[in-house]
Structure formats: structure tokens, C-alpha cells
Write a structure and sequence with these properties.
Rossmann fold; five-stranded mixed β-sheet; GMP Synthetase, Chain A, domain 3; 26% strand; alpha/beta
Amino acid sequence: MKPSRIHHLFDQRVQEDPDHPFLYLKQGQITLGELARSVDALEAELRQSDVRLGDRVLVVAENCPEHVALILACSRVGAWVCGVNARMSASELVGFIAKADARVVYFTSGVSVAASQHAQSQITVPSSLQGMLRTHTAAHASVQPGELAESVAAIIFTSGTTGQPKGVMLTHAGLLQFAKVSSESRQLGKADRSYAYLPMTHIFGLGTVLMASIYARSGLLMRSQFDPADVFEALAHQGMTQLQGPPAMFSRLLAWLDAQGIEHPVAPDLRYVYTGAAPLDLSVKNAVQARFGLPLHHGYGLSEYAGALTLCRLGEWRDDVSAGYLVEGAELRIVSPEGLDLPYGETGEIYMRGVGLMPGYFRDQAITDQVMKPGAWYASGDLGRQSADGALQVVGRLKEMIIRSGFNVYPGEVEAVLLRFPGVKNAAMMGRKTADGNEDIWAFVEPQSGVSLTAKDLQAHAHTHLTAYKRPTHLQVVSDMPMTLSGKILKRELLERHAHAHPE
């Protein structure tokens, strides 16, 4: 029978092969059957705590088996799991708890010092599973009524570069569809093992890593935090076949190899390397491919579409940073500011719809209405174009596009040029309005460790490779850039840090 809820898929896999190792930890393995017993215990605990269909269960977490068990137990009782990365601040957490209107809050205290510290600000009791604490049931929390109560599986809070984060409602149908798509696109099988440090509080970790692995009955090398040395140890000695993460992760891995003087890592079983969640620079892609001897697959995804909208084909070597082709069950359009469909090769806003599309933002109807368009299309706010072969090129955010002297300037184009300069680790570009209504281009560059860069040399490089209206008005070398946990640069925060030195 086709599963209709995410726990149905898991329960099927347990029934098929309860002794199959699923989670690989530094201290041992956990089989599907052993994990199922943890799910049983948490299901009973949730029911005893009067958690009901349509309730929200918030978990302050870093990756661990207990977090996996809680996700599945929530599905069994019909509650919505709301993941929050434990490394969020205390004030952010208070806001998330209030926004979720949570019936109960869990903390993965066994693997996370940060989660333990957050738990100290609440009245907690031990969970039935060792390694977790929970609050008492909140009597004031309101049950979600209607069809949403049945269809929604989880809430993912967007990282949000400005303003308050939004609660993206993910459906069981969307997560199950992406589990299938992600697994089949990689030909994932029982013998595969994926490195699972990506937080399951983020759609990348929840969909691409966890749900796809359940679908394929493959294994997860589960880690609560990222450690380059551990990645290469797992590649060399623990049968890792799948390595996935944002471009920032791969930059850190490349830097670690450089620091160790290693040209090619030992990775006898590795067959698939994938990146997403943030823009990919061609130089990073080429460096990864040279070091690992495999194509770096790329995809375009977002929380609002329960995973990836497009994926590169398995084994495909491309000389660009295309995010690949539409996945099964998805549709996309490239739309002009006037709302017209654009032909191949022209840049516009990416619209999407399909099985994975969210039903909306949790209790934010006004914001939902801003992005949902007639015909059940979602306006992503991302700018892209399709090549003649249908491959999607993502070029930036609509809000970040700069109109300078009547010309459109896309951040990705300028950043790509700056990233090609030797010794550049990160580059970010954004616009700032001037008194005459035009926009200045602000560019920031972070050098690689031990490298000294000058704004003068970078400006000369930009002058050589960019037409006049695309050249930065202001260019600064900075020691670091603020980032989200998924590796996206917080551009507004970056600009606010440094723009005060150049008042209008």
C-alpha cells in the first residue's frame, strides 16, 4: 500500500528488514527495528502528554537518533514536528516557541550543549528516551483545525535574511514525493551510506538526507556537528558513498585538505557528491571535482517546495553551475515583472507548483497571499533562466537585483568574477540606494586563510572583467561574513556592519 504519512514509509521499511543497520554513530550502530522501539516509546509519551492531531511539537535539536524518532512519533499521533537548530539564540527560541504555539517542547540534551543550555530556561522533565528533555504539556496551545491538520507533517522555520522567520508548512505528500525523487535521482540503495550532519531542522537534512535514506533503506553516518577531519575519516574507513552539503561545507573541506597538504582524499566507496541550499561558484565546483574525481551535482531547492525543484542528472559533467532539470511532480515558469512567461535564455522570477509545494506559511495568511499566485503558482523571489536544454540557472534574488543607470545587475554575475580572483574565499554583492535614485554596488570579499588581499587589486580585476555599470562602487576586504546555518551569506547584516563608514 502506498504510504500517505511519513511514518507509514518508515514502518514499511521496519517490517521488511528490522535488522538492517540504519544509523551509524561513533559509538555503534542502530538498526531499523531498534529505532522503531524508540519511536514506539515516544509515541506513547506524546499520547500520554495529550498531544493530538494538529498540535505542534517543537524540538530544539542537533542531529541524533532521538530526533529522528521524535519526527516519526509525531507523524504517528498526527502532530507537526517543528525543528529549531539548537545553536539559535535564547531570544530567537522564545520567538519560535510562541510562533509555533507548541503543545510541548523537546531538547536533544544528550548530544547538544546548546540544547541543554536552552532547556535550563524552561521547566523540563526527562523524556522516556535517554538524551532528551521535554517541557510539560501547554494547556493553552490551540489545535490546528480542518484539512491542514491531516496533511501537514512539519514546520520548517526559514532562516530569514530580514525580518521575522516564517513557518513553512510541509505536507506528508510533499516529503514522501521528495524522498522518492531524491532517492531515485541518485540510485540510492541499501548499500549506500550518507554523511548526515546537515541539520534535520532544515529541509536539506530532513528531505534530502533523512527521508530519502528511509525510502531507499540506506544508511546514515549521523553526526550532530560538522567536522572536516571526521568527514575524511568516514570517507576513508566507514564506507561513505554519499557526500552532501552546501557550498560553504565544500569550501571548508577544500581548505582542510590544503592545510593538510592532501591533494586527493582517500574515498574508496564515494560515488555521489551533491551541493545545494546556496549559490554555487564555478571555481568551487571545479576544485571539488578535481579533488574527488567525481561530478559535483547541483540542485535548486527551498523549504517552500519540500526539497528540490530541479536536480542535475546522475553522473552528468557540466561546465556551468546549472541547478539541473525539473524533478518528477514539479513545474516551473520564468516570469517577467509584467507576469508574462519568458522564453529560454531570458532572466525572470522563478515560479513553481507541484506535489511538494507548501500549503502556506503557518498562521501568516497575509504573507502567504503575497507569494501565492493564480493557478496555485508560488512566486519564489529567485531570479533564473532556463537553457535551451531545460537546465535551470539561478542568478540571484529579485530583491537583490540592482538597477543601475537603467541596467539590471545580478549579484551572482559580479560575485562570480570576484571569486575567480586568487585567494578569495567568499564574495557578496548588494545594492544601496543613492540620493539621486540610482543604486551603488557594494561588494565584500573574504580572503582565504593566510591570504592578504587589497581592495585596489580586486577593483582592477573587476575593471578588467566587468562592464562599467556592473563594477562595484565600494569594495571592502572583510575578515569574515555572517552566515545562516545552511551557509547563506546574510547580506543585509554584512552591509549594515560596514556601510556606516560610507554615509550617504
